[in-house]
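sry for the spam today, last one i promise. C-alpha cells for design, 155 residues
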C-alpha cells in the first residue's frame, strides 16, 4: 500500500477536504464506521465527512501507530476538537465542549487506493464528552465478576 495512502487519509481529515478523502477510495470502495453501523461508498463519504467537520471547526487526527503488510494496513489514531457546531447525524446541538476519541482503522488497498476501510471507536465515550450522555460511574465493584478463581473475591 505504501505510506502515501495513509498520509493522504490523515491529510484529508486534517485539511477538512472531503473530496480528497473520496478520491482516495476505489470506485467500489467501502468505508465502514462500526460505531454508527454505517457503510459508506465513495459517493456517500463526503456527507459524513462534512458532518464531522461541521460539528468541530478544529477537528484533527493524529496517528498513534500504523502498520502495513502488503495491501493491508492498520492505523491507531486519536481525533480531537471542540464541539462548536451541530452534529447533524445524531441531532446534537453544539455544546462548546472539547472531545478526544481514540480509534483504530483496518483497511485493504487496491492500486494505491482504499478498497475497504473499517473504523472502530467508542460512540458512547464521544457522546458523554459532548454532554449528550452522562459519564459512567464505574467503581472497582465491576471488576469483581462472579468467578470461582477470582483472587479479588478473597479480600
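last one done:
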Amino acid at each position: 500500500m505504501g505510506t502515501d495512502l495513509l498520509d493522504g487519509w490523515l491529510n484529508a481529515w486534517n485539511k477538512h477536504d472531503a473530496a480528497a478523502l473520496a478520491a482516495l477510495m476505489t470506485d467500489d470502495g467501502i468505508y465502514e464506521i462500526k460505531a454508527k453501523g454505517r457503510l459508506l461508498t465513495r459517493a456517500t463519504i463526503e456527507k459524513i465527512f462534512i458532518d464531522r467537520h461541521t460539528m468541530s471547526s478544529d477537528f484533527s487526527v493524529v496517528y498513534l501507530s500504523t502498520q502495513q503488510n502488503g495491501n493491508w494496513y492498520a492505523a491507531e489514531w486519536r481525533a480531537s476538537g471542540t464541539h462548536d457546531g451541530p452534529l447533524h447525524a445524531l441531532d446534537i446541538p453544539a455544546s462548546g465542549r472539547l472531545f478526544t476519541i481514540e480509534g483504530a482503522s483496518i483497511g485493504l488497498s487496491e492500486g494505491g487506493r482504499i478498497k475497504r476501510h473499517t473504523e472502530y471507536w467508542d460512540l458512547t465515550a464521544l457522546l458523554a464528552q459532548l454532554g449528550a450522555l452522562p459519564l459512567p460511574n464505574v467503581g472497582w465493584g465491576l471488576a469483581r465478576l462472579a468467578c470461582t478463581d477470582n483472587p479479588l473475591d478473597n479480600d
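Residues 3-135 form a domain with the Nuclear Transport Factor 2; Chain: A, fold (CATH 3.10.450.50). ok im logging off now
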